[in-house]
Amino acid sequence: MLTEEGLDAIDVPAFPVAKTWADVCSALDTLATQPHEFQTAFIDSLDWLEPLILAKVCADKNVKNIEDIGYGKGYIMADDLWREFFTKLDVLRDSRNMSVIC
What we know:
- The protein has 3 helices and 2 strands; from the N terminus they run H-E-H-H-E.
- By secondary structure, it is mostly helical.
- The longest helix is centred in the last third of the chain and has 24 residues, at 73-96.
């Protein structure tokens, strides 16, 4: 799963570049629930995933900036999404026997 452009030269199957948190969840859920023969999930990259998580929190709270939610509260909400992300990776590892590289 890609969260940034730039890996066009590598000839491997990949989902389209994730532009939203929903795209990320959709790709991981597809790997977890649909038949496939993939043995490895490669996430590139986490630093580009973070803005998608922060954007999701802002959209959910209808604010433009995570700081507008209140001191530290937006980041706690973001932590919940990070935990959801890593739980989805655990599913790939534990239920689908996939290696996960971030």
